[in-house]
Amino acid sequence: MNDDEVLNLDTINDFGALGVGLDDLESEDVTLVSYVLDASGSMQPHAADLTAAFAAEIAAMSGARSAEQVLVSVTVFQDAPKLLFGYRKLADVPRLDGGAYVPSGCTALFDAAHGALSHLEGYRKLLRDSGVRARAVVLVMTDGEDNASTRRPDEVKAIASRLALDEGAVLAYVGFGGDEATQRAQAAAIGFPTVLTAALTAGEIRRVLGQVSRSVLRTGGRVPASFF
Question: Which range of residues forms the domain containing residue 183?
Answer without folding.
Answer: 28-217
